[in-house]
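Protein Entry — a single chain follows
Next Lines — sequence and tokenised fold
***
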Amino acid sequence: MSELRLAVAGVPEHFNLAWRRIAERRALESLAVDLHWQEVSEGTGRMIDLLEAGDADMALLLTEGAVAGVANGRRIGLLGGWVASPLRWGVHVAAASEAQSARDLPGQRFAISRYGSGSHLMAGIYAQQHGWPEAPKFVVVDNLAGARRALSAGDAEIFLWERFTTQPVVDAGDFRRVDELPTPWPCFVAAVRDGLAPEMLGAARLALRAALHEAQGLSCADRAAHAFAEAYALDPGQANEWLAGTRWADATALDPNMLAGVGNAMRGVGMIEREPATAELLVSADTGEGEQRMELYWCPKTRSARVIWMLEEMGIDYTKTLIDIRDPEARKHPGFLEASPMGKVPALRDGETVMADGAAMCLYLADRYSAGTLAPTIDDPSRGRFLYWMFFGPGVMEPSMGEKFGTAQPNRAAHGWGDFATMVAALESGLAGGGPWLMGEQFTAADVVVGSTAAFMHLFGIPPESQAITDYVARCTARRAYQSAFGDFTTG
């Protein structure tokens, strides 16, 4: 398989640390994707220029800038979400400015990176919200450095930029923040250039999923705020505040109602003349591989939830076919029986591949779609440890839990899983290796298998007396994908 070169652009801000990391360690190399990460300080408007010129294949754009770009005829399409939480725009003036609050700002000039950028579009929103009697005026300054010069020289008076990125400038005494403006929508989306070949769209989707997993892992890691602070020269306290309010998006879908709301707001302040239709905004789901949609045969409150967790972590588009395991007729579904001859859920159909057993499915999905992120590659020395934990869940944890839950007598010599106490000790040892997950700092499919099984121990009333395992379960259950998959276990 020939390697695809994928050029991805984003602003040099803390939101994009995950992209830097997966590019530096070439995490997509095993999937034949050569990811090139480029940082663009001029922001969304400049990145749209790069997409149209073919100098970037994908870019992480401010949502309002992406929607306005499509409305204004820019040749881009939205692939998926990146950051689901709002952006906190800081409203800044020069430190020596007489302006003390929003009341003092009408009529003054906004410094913007370029027309069509977030700093331009949100300035229009800000002026409207505060009832400015006249349309705002703008001065193009290219980037944050240009804004510092412009406000210092009196060439512009106001600058809107992400408030945590500008905090060092405020601390240095160049800017003073007089207000904040949170966006009423998710702040960043992933966009691609028009005409991107189907196989490149597939590569872009893989890259977006990998970056979302990296971001989730970073956010859950010990000293997570320190990692972001160190990479972008932020105060650790500020980084922690930002991280606490940040949610990462679902790579598979963007809400059409949300996009319509952004378009309506942009038209309301005169930034666009028409609201783009959903079909104009979103790129096709076709990746050029011609595969059918993945199908999961499942039943509520079963081990099916483990595979749903895995699929939700990956952001893969799939359908669920309900198999009521209490109904013998339901188990006769021909597609289900082909995938699961024993008539047990879960079972999976992925094109011509059919299979049963939840742990096997998790391993297949990780290797097939997320090698290097949710699974170490075959030639990675850590692969052996990863496989150990992948099979530890069904091979050791589940039978020892059955022993604990039932009446079987422990027999370490005869039972391949040892006994419940030995299993607990082994898992504690694995979690003591450093980092929040079984493989250290990187969340993997092994955490889906082992974490779901450990969560079952708590759900079924046999939790081990282990603070390390309790804390590990808490980290697993805090993940959005887990909550999406396991909601039916806790709702009756």
In short: The chain is about 40% helix and 15% strand.
